[in-house]
Design a protein that fits this description.
six-stranded parallel β-sheet; Aldehyde Oxidoreductase, domain 3; three-stranded antiparallel β-sheet; alpha/beta; TIM Barrel; about 280 residues
Length: about 280
């Protein structure tokens, strides 16, 4: 899903700008005449996967509804090398200066998530496993970060707590066991909701599948352990999806894919992605 199609994804831009501008951009207002027009160029200072062009544009449009659209021959998802100018924006210079930091913060963050996701997706190519994100997102930026994951070639896990049932160790303990937790969930939620269960051993795997779980999550297992549990799950019910999670470093994620899992959830796609280096150089027109 393109989360940018949801108005909520861009609704907070005004708040982001207000946080940065405060009572006004005193540097720009005191040094740059309001009638000066400028041109700003987005420059990649390293290899990256572009993500967030529409978001960056929305920042400037919030400040000036008549500013031009970003001129570009690139789209979100395109890869560019260091030194590439991938977007040009024309408008009043004071608007370009005032919106620069917020636009870059979002563009660098989203492109960083997309770039890291692309690396993970390539690491498991040909295995049939999908890379998915988690809820370990930056508060207030979840829709943008999940959009960036899809631009990088990954898939979205549940959006929030209301989006699906994921029974984890604390739920199991409080419910009295895997069987009890799954039964309670299936008796409560709607028929369209999937039920996923985090399992740590063979007994929990069997109980989850016997109780009717749609998905099982193998958390913090070695690739060898995961391969054994995958085979056991297939023998019990081949229709159950299998997800692997926990400590998914880039250099070993393929070993989990080769173990036969369907999904690999990677929290670091959003909680540890490095903002890529992009500059916005402005000149007078």
């Amino acid at each position: 899903m393109n989360w940018l199609d949801n108005g909520d994804a861009l609704a907070a831009i005004g708040q982001f700008l207000a946080e940065d501008i405060g009572r006004g951009d005193i540097t720009t207002s005191s040094t740059v005449p309001g009638d000066v027009r400028g041109i700003g160029r987005f420059l990649a200072k390293e290899y990256l996967v572009i993500c967030g062009l529409e978001v960056a544009e929305a920042v400037f449009l919030h400040l000036d509804a008549e500013i031009s659209e970003i001129e570009t021959s690139f789209s979100d998802g395109d890869e560019v090398e260091e030194g590439t100018v991938f977007g040009v924006l024309k408008g009043y210079a004071d608007v370009l200066l005032t919106g620069e930091r917020v636009a870059l913060n979002l563009l660098q963050r989203m492109s960083g998530v997309a770039t890291l996701t692309r690396q993970y997706v390539r690491a498991v190519e040909g295995t049939g496993a999908a890379i998915v994100d988690t809820r370990k997102t930056t508060p207030g930026l979840r829709l943008l970060e999940k959009y960036a994951v899809t631009i990088g070639g990954g898939k979205n896990h549940r959006l929030g707590l209301d989006d699906g049932v994921l029974i984890k160790d604390n739920h199991i303990s409080l419910a009295g066991g895997v069987t009890e937790a799954v039964a309670a969930a299936k008796n409560t939620v709607g028929h369209l909701h999937k039920v996923e269960v985090e399992v740590t051993n063979w007994a929990q795997l069997r109980d989850a599948i016997d109780a009717g779980a749609d998905i099982v999550m193998l958390d913090n297992h070695t690739p060898e352990e995961a391969a054994k549990l995958v085979q056991m799950s297939r023998d019990l019910n081949p229709a159950v999806l299998i997800e692997a999670s926990g400590g998914m470093d880039l250099d070993r994620v393929r070993s989990y894919a080769e173990a036969g899992v369907d999904l690999i959830s990677v929290g670091r796609l959003t909680h540890s992605a490095r903002a890529v280096d992009i500059s916005f150089k402005i000149q007078t027109l």
